[in-house]
Amino acid sequence: MRTVKIYGLAHPSTGLIWYVGASGHPTRRVRQHCSKGASKRVRTWIASLDAEPVKTILEAADIANWQERERYWIEAQKKQNPELLNVSDGGYGQAKDGMKRTAVFLTDEQLADLQAVYKATGAKPSESIRRAIDRYLENMKPEVREGKKK
User: Fold this and answer.
1) Domains identified in the chain, total number
2) Distance separating alpha carbons of residues 27 and 41, to the nearest angstrom
3) Taking the model in full, what pTM does it have?
4) CATH number, position 70
5) CB atoms within 10 A of CB 18
């Protein structure tokens, strides 16, 4: 069974988890959190520590349901630490290796604004923005998506 590790990054002194992530290679992924391409929130938090964050494997999830399990752990850790650094609810993006993050995280309002701009200007969104807008539209009620009034 192929697994994805759901991990937490904890403060080295308090043990309080500040970030939850998922990776097939958590040690490598933790190193990536320190690079410029990583989330600024997580990178800044790591840089503020006097020692490396403590990586804790919360669960080895089956590749088929890692997204659900990552969302579970983020929700559970937010109860322990309401200031958890995760900006999304988790479980986004999957490539052939099961882990590549390709999703763009935007609020419904941001997606609606982008859609209006693209419609008004005729500009074409990037592939990742287009996928985000498509996901947003797929989740809307049909009468809203089609512009019908109740």
Assistant:
1) 2
2) 19
3) 0.60
4) 3.40.1440
5) 21
